[in-house]
Aspartate aminotransferase (Fistulifera solaris), 422 residues
Amino acid sequence: MISKQFISRLGRQSQRMSARWQSTSPFAAYEMAPLDPIIGLNEEFQRDDFPQKVIVGVGAYRDDAGKPYVLPCVREAEQRLVEQKLDMEYSGIAGDQKFVDLSLKFGYGEDSSALKEGRIQGVQALSGTGGLRVFGELIRRHGQKHIYVPNPTWGNHIPIFQNSGLEVRKYRYYDASNSSLDFDGMIKDIQDIPAGSCVLLHACAHNPTGMDPTLEQWKQLSELFKKKQLFPFFDAAYQGFASGDAILDAASLRMFVDDGHLLGTIQSFSKNFGLYGHRVGTLSVVGSNADEAARVVSQMKMVIRPMYSNPPRHGARIVSTILDDPKLKSDFYEQCKGMANRINTMRTKLRDELEAVGSTRNWDHIVKQIGMFAYSGLNKEQVMEMRAKHHLYCTADGRISMAGVTTNNVSYIANAMHDVSK
Ligand code: KET
């Protein structure tokens, strides 16, 4: 039998040996990496002990008391799932097929003819981020060398695609001097993109600018993409958060499919279903026929299996329980609209408060923008000053998550913004 004394003697011996080996640590050259520009803000915020500190960084919805919000339809679906005492076996590599089917109907439309023809197929993904990463890898393996993204875009798009081995190129998107969409610049740049290139579009509620093309402009883009033979890729992370209506918010994607484009899409259920930590999403393609779409899905599985094997089950089950039940589905549409409405109320309040505290700058863009964010126009120095002086945390590009603005903190935020911008 091994005695306790023997184990502790071994322990002392190991300590002596490790002291000798310390100088040759395999980790000795590792440098401390910088904090992530969005998620890393939470860490900085945690360390701040100022009582009135406010964070409007990461795009995660809060209720008017500033608390994380679980949609009641999600709670109800969870309850039903618990009662079913489901098994916890591995999912397939492509995830939960029922979830994928319902998710595609949610994105592309219940009566999409391309969907009925079997030309749209996909896999469950580790939310939007995971879907983007698999897509990047997939197209690089199949000959793409670069991808075009709007300038600016969600910060993480760039390293996701670079890590997939793609060169990331940008097209004009935003006119900072007028706080508006630079549609002419966008068209001009897209005209110059080489045929066959993949171009990422935000399906709605563009992050970070909150400025989307109008439906007429989407139509022009669709025609241009066709003429230039470009390969559209939609990032649909905010379906329901732009107009409050998840069907309206899918208009750009559905228009492109109706116009005959062959494309890719990622859908995230983080924001609209509030399932952030459950990592629920879909990666899909519209192919020229069902066989082609099936071949693409088989290649997605080749990327997924050695990367993370298969996706988690619970969140996908929640979404499919909701989308498969008429009552829960209509609850979802209403509750999603409720979140979008609260954000819009806060947009008006923030603009009004800025005027009330005496700011003479024009803040109308805060009301004009849609989705989760206000792209305030504050520069990096002003953001850092707000952080140091007012303990108000937003991203360095001046993006404010409107989902974190509440009746209680809106005047505090307005004061801080005014103080650094007067
Ligand atoms: N696309 C866009 C445009 C996006 O804003 C996000 C997240 C994602 C994809 C990925 O989300 P996921 O949870 O992986 O489905 N944006 C917020 C959160 C983050 O940075 O991770 C944000 O910009 O705050």
